[in-house]
Amino acid sequence: MPTLRSRLGTATLVAVPLVVLVAFFLYPVSGMIGRGFWTDGSFDPGGVLDVLGRDRVHRVVWFTLWSAGLSTALAVVLGVPSAYVLHRLSFGGQRILRTLIVVPFVLPTVVVGVAFRQLIAPSGLLGGLNLDGTATAIIAALVFFNVSVVVRTVGSFWEGLDRRTEEAAAALGASPLRVFGTITLPALLPSIASAASVVFLFCSTSFGIVLTLGGLRYANVETEIYQLTTQDLDLQAAAALSVLQIAVITALLVISHRTRRNAPALTRAAERGRRPAVRDLPLLLWTAAVIALLVTPLTTLLVSSLRIDGAWSLANYRALQTTGAHNALLVTASSALAHSLEIAVQAAAFALVLGTVVAFLVSRRPRSRAVRRASGVFDGVFMLPLGVSAVTLGFGFLITLNKPPLDLRSSSLLIPIAQAMVALPLVVRTVAPVLSSIDPRQREAAASLGAGPLRVLLSVDLPYAWRALVAATGFAFAVSLGEFGATSFLSRDDNPTLPVVIFRLIGRPGAENFGMALAASVVLAAATGIVMLLVERFRVGSVGAF
């Protein structure tokens, strides 16, 4: 039986992350939404309903749904065959290719937008296709950004499937296609459904990509909230869209949780893949094409940053030490990079501590059905930052955390806390599966010797899960480094982050400013890529296993 000390320790561990979530997520978001429901001091829900009846809102919602749905379908089609090659086969350079697949997922969305703008510009590699300012460019960028979620989610599950059933079917004369259709695919469906729901979530809440590529013609719910909040000052309409978005995202998180819960348990550890055979050639070529599609925008971005008037030059990179043409910035881009790195370290540390506590709590195996349900709800609540508009969160910070006892508007911690909230679900989903695999008898033995929950976490769980913790730290750092939605509200002109600087530069006239944006994008992409190379050395689980 749990002792009083153990119960108090567990209650404390539960209370701390809940208090943080309420103070720095639920309170700001509810504050933003409340501004739309209360007009002139009176409750006016009818105004919100009127907003949802606008033709403009219908067009925005329809574009969000169909673009996210098509992007999700394409990501699944491209990702599942690649998951087989990168996680079921074994060949030289496989780890490097896995890293290349993951890098787009952690790239700052504004960098992805700039890379695709350069790729489809009239002078770009695909300029002749006239894709600039089209929905096709947005969908291509969304697929580029999210295909790695499918590869890692499905691939990690595929890697752990017991191969003996497939081998038995093949021994009885079943063709490889028959084996896949009758045995492998049914076993993979829960992971494919989980990956698809997460990809749809990310596509429907994409901000930087749609803002950069959509122009004035295309807007999704996320960019429309930004427009309504910053340009039109129509908080009621922004609140209505935020409520609609939260409802859809909550439903997606429930679906993802159920598909993950209903997935068959992996009873065997991941085995070393077999060497490629002749029959694998089509899948190998398919994967090579997918990787080429992922590498091409980044290569175009790099080459463009090094070319000025048809000649090779490092002038764009040297210009990062300046404030741009006609003083487009108040500080240099290099100063913004240093500020971004500092914030990312703080945000990653905060997300790691909080996320590890949450992962520890949700990874336990309570015997009581009621406690298991409560644990599932607890886990789901901490996934909400995945889908709630970063714009809503950022603006909510401004209008709620500006008076005692949480007067943080002028605090240097405001942006790190906001970015930590964005990165928190990644930390939980990276660490929790590893902690769940720990034999509960080890924890029970430590508890029987008088160790409280915190002591058990420090002495049993953390030593076992240190590789997952390193990976989670890298993910949180990379996500924080490129976070743009909330930061665009909270960053000051005299102390911006690099993603904010890039967006400002592409909005300023002059080739020098755009060249600086290209160079800054390459630097930011390189920083996140280096982090992911380091994370891959401690690879555990899947970045997309939500």
Automatic annotation (TrEMBL):
It is a multi-pass membrane protein. It is found in: Cell inner membrane; Cell membrane. Keywords: Cell inner membrane, Cell membrane, Membrane, Transmembrane, Transmembrane helix, Transport. The keyword Membrane applies. CDD domains: TM_PBP2. The keyword Isomerase does not apply. Its main location: membrane. GO terms for biological process: transmembrane transport. It comes from the Bacteria. InterPro entries: MetI-like, MetI-like_sf. One of its GO terms (cellular component) is plasma membrane. The chain crosses the membrane at residues 60-84, 96-116, 136-155, 187-215, 235-255, 283-303, 343-362, 382-401, 413-435, 464-482, 514-535. Residues 61-254, 337-535 form the ABC transmembrane type-1 domain. Belongs to the binding-protein-dependent transport system permease family. This is Iron ABC transporter permease.
